[in-house]
Amino acid sequence: MRTRLVDVALGAFLVVGCAIAAWTFRQADYWSDGRSLVELLGGGSWNYHNLLYLPTGHLLEALLRPFGTSTRTVLEILSVAATGLALAFTFAAARVQGIGRAAALCGTAVLAAAPTVWFYATCVEVHPLQLAASAGALLWFVRSADRGSLGRSALAPAFFFCILQSTHVSGVLCVPALFLLAFRGTGRWAWPRHVLLGLLVVALFAGLWYGLQGAQGPAQRYAGQALRDLGTGWRPDFLWHELVVETGMLYPMAFALLAVTWRRDVQAVLRPLPLALLVLVATFVPFALTFLVEERGAYYFWAVPALGLCACRLLELMGSWKLPLAAALLGLHVYWGSEQIRAWTEDYPGHEWVPTLEEEAGSGALVLTLYSHEWVAVQNHSGLEAVRPSDEALSVPERWAAALVKAVQIARAGNRKVVIMRSLYELDYPSFDQAVEELVRRFGAPRPGRRPEYLVFE
User: Fold this and answer.
1) Residue-level pLDDT at 432
2) Do 12 and 146 reside in the same domain of the chain?
3) Separation between Cα atoms, residue 219 and residue 242, nearest integer Å
4) Where does a domain end: 346, 379, 401?
5) pTM over 0.70
């Protein structure tokens, strides 16, 4: 009983410690879908292709409402709390496997400081909830293996597929590993109980998901792209970046553990849980080679808690060397991760002019951009709103001109400044000339800004 209380206290320490550290160093910038998630939650939306994220956000928002917490702060707290929970689950899984407290704490600390884990803990994104769900599934299966009930029923793999897929649509990548745990969880191939019931659970979930999302949502487009690109145009450098670089030393530690275990006992590598991890990583490889969307390794977050567990086991095998090694790895991860965050928040394309633009235009200004990198720079690294022409605007210039004028009128009516990027203002292209000429006719010629990249309508 005392041992369990100590472990619970250490798990709570991990959650609180992670929360304090991540909250202290949280990013002011947005990454990927972060800004749109704040807007969706603030607008009262509940439906999103990662089904559990917005409902979880609304629940947390309701709990924090008495404190007057802003929408963005709610989602920052969600990222921090979910990451802390993932660490606590991983530590608990290590203890269930009989790993000593010191090695379990050190390995979990190395996991916490891994570049991709630390990055997402400090910003608004869906992936910390995905990480927590994956770590929760890991703890469940480790406990099941410890009790001898792994592979007895297909309901648990079916249930966890629904949970994982609800936190992020890349959860489908876990299907081969979950199938193996269901049908080979006992150590040999066998037909588990409740197969039909498990299939029914998955079918009902799939029906619910498609009923909420429809047939043309962003998840379906990404899935279609991933399947179309599979096996074509391989980019080993992309796989290296998404799977290895972003996770720091977690994969090298896991493969080092594999080599040590293989030499000692080949059969140990072929046990259900290690084999499921190998199958999971093998499933990632063809997609990481061909699905060229940069997400700092988060599409493959599903293996990260298990890699953290491998780190705990490897440190346990190091004996008296575990603390020096863990300290070195922790320092490497902290440096590596902080450099990545610094590069994203300080060295992004446009860092020379975005802060000046925000200072000159004031909060809430509307920025008219031409290129994608301009739009990303404004949207992700400032509190300003940016608009840019879509592909359809190129073929229907009149519609683009009317939409742009209307957006500017709304901004001016709200006493917001309007900024136009010089690239758009000086572009000699009929589809855009008409829109810019209409703006000048209605609002006068813009004056030069403090930076040459933009002009300001007074």
Assistant:
1) 74
2) yes
3) 19
4) 346
5) yes
